[in-house]
Amino acid sequence: MTGQEGRDLRDSLIARAQSRVELREGSGEQESAESTRRRCRKCKRTGHNARTCKEDAEMSTI
Whole-prediction pTM value? Predict the structure, then answer.
């Protein structure tokens, strides 16, 4: 493989990867990604897990 062929292959791979990212970002896949985020077992909210859930702490102070 010549140096130019290597650069062309690299550029092609970079362009293909960028296209995949753009397709993912623009295809509404973000909404489906949101629905597949992990949720806390206790309160069913995203952003934390059952071990760090604040709902238990709130209930114990009442």
Answer: 0.38
